[in-house]
Every structure is written in structure tokens, then in C-alpha cells.
Amino acid sequence: MAMLEVKDLAVNYGVINAVKGVSFEINQGEIVSLIGANGAGKTTILKTISGLLKPASGTITYEGQPIQKQKAPKIVAAGISQVPEGRHIFPGMSVKENLQMGAFLQSNRQSMTDSFEAVYQRFPVLKERLDQDAATLSGGEQQMLAMGRALMSKPKLLLLDEPSMGLAPIFINEIFDIVEAIKEQGTTVLLIEQNAKKALAIADRGYVLASGEVKMSGTGAELLANQDVQKAYLGG
Amino acid sequence: MTTLLQQLINGLSLGSIYALLALGYTMVYGIIKLINFAHGDIYMLGAFWGYYTINFWHFNFIFALVSAMFVCAVAGVVIEYLAYRPLRHAPRITALITAIGVSYFLENIMSYLYGADTRNFPQVIKQVNYTIFGVRISNIQILILATACFLMILLQLIIKKTKMGRAMRAVSVDADAAELVGININRTISFTFALGSSMAGAAGVLIGLYYNSIDPLMGMTPGIKAFVAAVVGGIGSVPGASLGGFLIGLLETAVQSVGLSAYKDAAVYLVLIIILLVLPAGIFGKNVKEKV
Questions:
Q1: How far is B54 from B65, CA to CA, in rounded Å?
Q2: What is the ipTM of this complex?
Q3: Would you list which residues of chain A are within 8 Å, Cβ to Cβ, of chain B?
Q4: pTM reported for the whole predicted model
Q5: Closest Cα partner for A102 from A85, A91, A90, A86?
Q6: Domain map of chain A by residue range?
Q7: Per-residue pLDDT tens over the stretch A209-218
């Protein structure tokens, strides 16, 4: 059974049908990439999974339970954590406070200390800047902080929305390495990217979205080799 | 010199009450971007609660203060739940007009229930005046200043050090991101209203003690002045609201002491106009920069 199963999902913004009957699934331990152009509905799907948006129809089943009617905090508690597009760290709060916020639902002190240790190990640069205002970090560091914050809740499924957006090339490679390392440690990853080449290269499976529908699916390698995908998303 | 010191004491006492009120404005604005015009009326409710409990239940000062804070916290939460929550996704002007409506409702329901007459606030603490270096200071003034400062420090600790305080700050800078880390937005907003309203309740009891008179419309002018104080300090900023409150209190006393009592309210509004012209973000206002 799939860890997360999205079935016939439709989401509207007012009169606009942003997502029109999308189905896909994620198995435990996979990296699954959703690729597609701007406006394809990728972010909308992610926000609906994490409970910020409510679907017009369709179901989202996580570990056998329907979650499409749950509110965001319940979904975080169930083990799904999202790194939002544009990072959305908390400015005016220190790096440490930002990480603490990520563990908001944890009350066990020991488990919180473990989360901190794990995040420091994954992102040593954050440890050096614990007391610094998060808003003063560079874009790449902010992305790491956003990812660290999401990992603080020890998610089973991590949702990443455009983690490489607006970053310098050196950071982009680092971020993709980190995503792979997160998977190695047993966290399942749903990755949304416009950088389709890199996203498919590290993905076990991928789905190509356009105008709110799934146009194609396959393993990462299959999609990378596909001529249509190459033409549309990989620059020929 | 003595006059100056005397006015300083008077200004700080009055200012600390404005500061307590301004905190509620600034916190509520910070979290849901609403100027809660009913906030001054919560302060009136606090004063009336103090009046009744001291007169009829013979509460002492501390008991009256703490119970007024609790009752006002509940009132604030109920008002938010009934009046503002249904409008969470409505345009901001809708909620603003609703706040004015809530304000009129509270003023008129209290006038209807208890009459619009001014009442004498019971002298729960006997006034004693001390003269130090020619400056007269009453035990009531000391009590007001000490209570207000204690509450402000307590509030600052709650905001900086507790989990709910961090949640409040997180929701006020980025509600979506806050929800994604598992913060219950509605509960955090209720908590903010509870905190802000309890400060207003405390201010109500303190002003009753200071001026000895209360009436159902007593919240209107101080409410607006506290709002000015919050704007002067930088709306959304907690230390700013405290500072703004003290500044407005000092200004008002200064204007009175030079013989322009009739213009003390005008002076406060003049400051509002000047601040909005030259420093629209206020003293501690944040010029929010976003990194994209």
C-alpha cells in the first residue's frame, strides 16, 4: 500500500480550477518529483496535502487514513511536514527560535534535543548562526533553515516546494545532495521543482503536470529520457 | 525643577495606564491586522468589574485587579469569537467597522444596564501622599506604576520565552508558515485577545483608582489615545506600545501643566498627525524587508 495516495484531486481558487482530477501516489522511502511549468498546479497540490487548502473533490489518503478534511496542525502531527515555496522562515526570530518553532508539537525534551542534534549534523552552518536573526541569512542558508525547521518535527513524509528557487548554483547542488541524504535516512520525499533535470535525476519516480492535470508519469530515468519531457522541460 | 519632577511623576502614572491599553492594540494589530476599536470598552468593563466587586463583594485591590483581568480576558476572547472570527477572510475594512460596532454595543449595553451616570470608584486603598524633595507622590501613583511595569515585564516574558508567545510571534509574521509547523492559528489569536484584554482590564481598575470615577463611555477617549500611543511606538511592536503610552501620558501632563488643559486631547492628536507624516512606521516600527 502506498504511503500517500492522492486520488482525483480537484482544487479551485474561486472560479479558477487550479487542479483538475490529479491522481498519484508515493511509496515509503521514495523520492517522488512533480515537475511542470509555472501555473501547472504543483504548489496547489502541496498546499492541499498539508491542509492549507481544501479540495473541491477527491481524496488524499495517508497511511490508510483520509486526511483531506484535516487541518494543517493535525497533518503535521501525523508526520507530514512541508517546506514552503519561498522558504517562509520567521524573520525577527533567531535561527534557534525558528528551529524551535519546527518542533512546536513536540513536548518531549529528549526527542527535541535529538531533533536539534540531527539538524545541526545535517546543516552545520545553522549551528554556527544559532543566535542570528534568521532574516540576515543568505538565500541558501534560509533554505537550509526552512528544511531544518521542517525536519524538527521528525516527519515521515517531507514535502519540498521549489527548494532550489532563486539560489546560487553552488547551493542548488548542495540542496539536491541534502534531499538525497534525507531520503537515505528513511524520510520519504515529495519534491516539486522547476529545475526538472535535477529533480528527475534524484527521483525514484516522477509525474509531469500541465494545466492542473497529470500528463505523464514514470521512473525518474524514464522521464529524463522521454523526448516530450526533454522538449518541454529540459530545454531540448 | 520641582514642578518638572512633579509633572514627570504624574505623566508616568497616567502614561503607564495608556501603555497597558496600547499593548492590547498593538498585539491584536500584529496578529490579525485589525485596529480593535472595542479595546477601550474592554477597559471600561474592567473598571466596572472592579467597581462592583470592591463595592458589593468587598474584594481587596489585588483580588479586584486579577479578577478584572480574567473577566476581561474572557470578554476579549468571546468578542473575537463572535464578532471577528466570522470575518477572518473578509476585507479588513469590514472587520474594522465591526470593531466600531462592537464598541458602540458595549457602551450602550452598559449604559442600558447600569445607567449612563458617572459613579465614584470605591477607595479600596486609602490615599497617602508622600513628599520627597518637594515632589508630591501618592501611594496610588506608586501602585499604578509598579503594577503596570510588573504586567509589562510579565507580558514581555510571555511573548519572548513561552511557547504560546513564540506562536504569537510566528503567526504575526507569517500565518501560513506558522500553520505548517503545527500552530493552531485560531487558538493563538484567542490567546492574543485574552492577553491584550487582560491588560486593558488591569488598566481599567487602575484608572478607577486614580481618577475615582467611571462611566460607560469612559473607554472612548483613552481608547483612542492608547491607539495613538501604539502608532507612535510603531504598531505591532510591543516595546513600542509601552514607550508610546508613556510618551503620550507625559505629553498630556506637560500640556496641562503649562495651562493648556483644554487642549490636552488636541495635543495628542497633533502628535498622531506629525508621526504619521514624518515617521509613519512609528519609533520601533519595522520596515519589513523581504528576501526573495
A1: 10
A2: 0.89
A3: 50-52, 71-73, 76-77, 81-82, 84, 86, 88-93, 97, 100-102, 104-105, 135, 139, 142, 149-150, 153, 166
A4: 0.89
A5: A90
A6: 4-233
A7: 988 889 999 9
